[in-house]
Design goal:
With 458 residues, the protein is α+β, with helices and mostly antiparallel strands. It has ten helices and 22 strands. The protein has three domains: 59 residues, Nucleic acid-binding proteins (OB fold (Dihydrolipoamide Acetyltransferase, E2P)); 181 residues, Rossmann fold (3-Layer(aba) Sandwich), CATH 3.40.50.150; 141 residues, OB fold (Dihydrolipoamide Acetyltransferase, E2P). Bound molecules: S-adenosyl-L-homocysteine. It holds the Pfam family tRNA_U5-meth_tr.
Length: 458
């Protein structure tokens, strides 16, 4: 063994070991002399023989050669390709075990932060944990003589064709296929990352779970399609359910999939969906939760945690199109929302009107900056709801919360690691976790877990 405790592993070396854990990416963990080896499609409790594929300084990767014992939680899925794609890395783990695993993950994060006293409830799951997504963004490429939609295998630029994404509303997958075939028939070119030529980059489809309204956005490097009229007519004919057809212009060489420049090719610039009895308008660039069934539970839990009395000033931070704030508006005196994407704020304002809500106000701003301003202006909310992206809250926002001193702080989180990090900082501002944390399975078959947590002033 070398000095840094690294066993002498080499590529293609074959070994046998026990899988003792599962990483956040859904890889099984085997340890050889304490050195971690990550193995795709292996589950805790399984004994496997495996071959090393890559050795790095502090860990290695391997692939399974043979399972010598099988976990009782393993299910044999027809969708095993979903592991390689990274779309559904937990597809081979029985659903109850997925829920238990997610709860345990949250528990361990609190434990590692020295917060053992924080109780974590069993994860709330779905009755039918597949085909739940109301939105997809699919890459499109010219391959083997035709336009292809599918997924990139990890670390590869080759698209593996796929028709059933397993997690999407089947009508969404069907629309992707139909639109791709029409575009193929008209010979529309696909963007090539190497030559930087060609037009089509992604197809985005979003469908209202209750309303069935469907939006298709064609993401392209140009502002116009060739034979545009005929293409639009053909899409309209083959997808008669389409409410909105958009050409989204994105010439940038970044990982950001959609640009901000949209042109309506047909129908409405937005779609509507209904959630918890409210009507929501959703634009192309607006965030809207991808699992409408569990989102209803999530918002109800958030409101329940806050135990609202009716006379509160509430802040809805990272408000998207205003969903959380508008949902709780009937249970408080006033809501002020803040969101950085201006078109989403425009949607929130329209959603207020459409639902005849008068006691809400939405501001387009960076949430941390707005919190600092509010704190300086002496704003004193009674309850603050935050629902930040994966990177969590910033220390500035947390300090501003310490100054504004809301009695209740409800944290809706899509990343337990940043949730726990922020809880530690909020404790330094005089807050404590007041009720057990509630994990909710917003993203079945994936490693992601959503949590709702309440903190109150000590
Ligand atoms: N509460 C909403 C949206 C949650 S997603 C819902 O449940 O649908 C997180 C939102 O935070 C996104 O709409 C994103 O645009 C927004 N966001 C990201 N960074 C932000 C920032 N610095 N300030 C304000 N909003 C931000």
């Amino acid at each position: 063994m070398s000095k840094n405790n690294r066993p002498n592993l080499v590529k293609n070396q074959e070994l046998v070991g026990d899988v003792i854990d599962l990483t956040y990416e859904g890889l099984g963990v085997v340890k050889i002399d304490d050195f971690p080896i990550f193995v795709s499609d292996s589950l805790p409790g399984e004994k496997i023989s495996f071959a090393i594929t890559r050795v790095l300084n502090s860990y290695a990767f391997a692939r399974v050669l043979k399972r010598l014992t099988t976990s009782p939680d393993r299910v044999i899925s027809e969708h095993a390709d979903m592991i390689a794609s990274g779309i559904a890395p937990l597809v081979n783990l029985a659903y109850p075990a997925q829920l238990a695993f997610k709860r345990e993950q949250v528990r361990q994060l609190f434990h590692k932060a020295g917060l053992d006293q924080v109780e974590v409830l069993p994860t709330i799951g779905m009755a039918n944990p597949t085909h739940y997504r109301n939105k997809t963004v699919v890459p499109i490429k010219f391959q083997q003589g035709r336009l292809t939609t599918g997924f990139y295998r990890r670390g590869s630029h080759k698209l593996v064709p796929i028709n059933d994404y397993y997690l999407n509303d089947p009508k969404i997958d069907a629309a992707v296929g139909i639109a791709r075939d029409v575009l193929n028939r008209f010979g529309v070119s696909a963007y090539d990352e190497i030559t930087r030529e060609g037009l089509l980059r992604y197809l985005m489809v979003r469908r209202g779970y209750v309303t069935g309204q469907m939006m298709l956005a064609i993401v392209a490097t140009g502002k116009k399609l060739p034979q545009e009229k005929a293409v639009v007519a053909a899409i309209k004919k083959t997808l008669p359910d389409l409410t909105s057809l958009i050409l989204n212009y994105n010439p940038k060489q970044t990982n950001v999939q959609l640009g901000l420049d949209n042109r309506v090719l047909y129908g409405s610039p937005v779609i509507h969906d209904t959630l918890l009895g409210l009507d929501f308008e959703i634009g192309v660039n607006s965030f809207y939760q991808v699992n409408p069934q569990t989102t209803a539970v999530l918002y109800q839990k958030a409101a329940e945690m806050a135990d609202l009395a009716g006379d509160e000033l509430a802040i809805d931070a990272y408000s998207g199109i205003g969903t959380i704030g508008l949902y709780i508006s009937s249970q408080v005196k006033k809501v002020i929302g803040v969101e950085v994407v201006a078109p989403a704020v425009a949607d929130a304002k329209k959603n207020m009107q459409a639902n005849h809500i008068q006691n809400a106000e939405y501001i387009a701003a960076d949430a941390p900056e707005q919190f600092v301003k509010w704190a300086q202006a002496g704003i004193r909310p009674d309850v603050v709801f935050v629902d930040p992206p994966r990177k969590g809250l910033s220390p500035e926002l947390i300090e501003a919360v310490g100054q504004m001193q809301p009695k209740k702080f409800v944290y809706v989180s899509c990343n337990p690691a940043t949730l726990v990090r922020d809880v530690v900082l909020l404790r330094q501002q005089g807050y404590q976790v007041a009720k057990p944390v509630q994990p909710i399975d917003q993203f079945p078959q994936t490693m992601h877990v959503e949590c709702v947590l309440l903190m109150t002033r000590v």
